[in-house]
Write a structure and sequence with these properties.
Blueprint: H1 10-26, H2 37-56, H3 61-88, H4 97-116
Length: about 120
């Protein structure tokens, strides 16, 4: 694997923890949701890490900012999908406490990074 500087950043480490937590939570979703919310949540969580990584590997500030904004948008997407999962009854607020903490942390850190490249 590449030894890239962004892998040492708190935002990247926290985002990978978010992926792990989303996979853990969705493991308990109904089987019929495999191609619904389970898939959407997992893809969105992976998108956070992927766009963060790709953005920080870009050369221009404008490119970096663009990919970081996409990563932050994926955080918002996860938030909406978790809210739906609660309303539908797939998960309780207690079960997603760690996800909630990681989402808030990722959103704040990505926002600060975006400001850096603005």
């Amino acid at each position: 694997m590449l030894e890239l500087a962004h892998k040492k950043l708190d935002v990247w480490i926290s985002s990978t923890e978010l992926v792990q937590e989303i996979y853990s939570v969705t493991k308990h979703f109904p089987k019929e949701e495999q191609f619904g919310l389970t898939s959407q949540l997992r893809r969105a969580s992976v998108s956070v890490v992927s766009n963060l990584s790709e953005g920080l590997a870009r050369f221009t500030d404008a490119e970096k900012k663009r990919f970081l904004e996409i990563a932050r948008s994926s955080v918002v997407e996860i938030d909406a999908q978790i809210e739906l999962s609660i309303k539908i009854g797939f998960v309780s607020r207690d079960q997603i406490q760690k996800v909630d903490e990681l989402l808030n942390r990722a959103f704040a850190m990505l926002t600060n990074l975006i400001k850096k490249y603005s």
